[in-house]
Amino acid sequence: MRAVVVDTVGGPEAVRVVETDVPEPGERQIRIKVAAAALNPVDAGVRAGVFGALAGRTGLGWDVAGTVDAVGGAAGGTWRTGEEVVALHYGMVKPLGTHAEYVVVDADAVAPAPAAADAVHAASLPLNALTAAQALDRLEVTSGQSLLVTGAAGAVGAYAVQLAARRGITVTALARETDEEFVRSLGAAGFTAGGVAAGGFDAVLDAAVLGAPALEWVRDGGAYIGVIPHAEPGPVRGVRTGAVEVNADGTQLAGLVRLVDEGALTLRVAETYALDDAAKAHARLAEGGVRGRLVLVP
What we know:
With 298 residues, this protein is of the alpha/beta class. The chain is built from eight helices and 16 strands.
């Protein structure tokens, strides 16, 4: 089968498509025939060495939508071949990622695919929606409290706005002026392109990775959560700080799929690329200004 890998850190030119063996599922794992797999900034970070040097060949891709192709051991009690699914394949460094024709994932990381979306759009859900949901859980913001979401028009930020508004939280979106109509359509009660008042919010979900400046916008005793583990600013003024490290939770992912089917979550795809054009997709991501996910299709 074909798979997208990097052998050394570098730019988009470091991305290669290689022939490799089809992986076999182990106990409590399933193999998915990939229909679509999103390209995320974390993939570009791995490629560029942001998370450290590579220890040999590394597969790329975290998100996947496709069809169950084989099951291992006890996973057969939960999943059947032919079922359409989505999953998060967690891991910075792994021999094979989801940017491949087949991928093996843990059975408890899998959820039924949304009925209301095709595979290309479904592939944009797992990593970013789970990150948003788990960040909100970490913030412990409740109905009636105020939340500022930075990078609110981005993939994680947009899901966070929708999920928080659904929880009854008063959301203010920080984004470019040209994105105001979009983020308000997601449920943001307030909007700003800058000039945020210090201490004005019960919590901040910092999807734009602004760091210390965003921390200043949290009231004394509030909460701040970033999206890059170990990169969050230290606590001040009694503000609780942290960062979400996404967990591949199939049960939570299934709940997010239900919200997609209810029309409560918006899936956004900017462009699709053939698997063989993975390097071109990385180059497009590096250009910036992408609204929605780039998705690879084997």
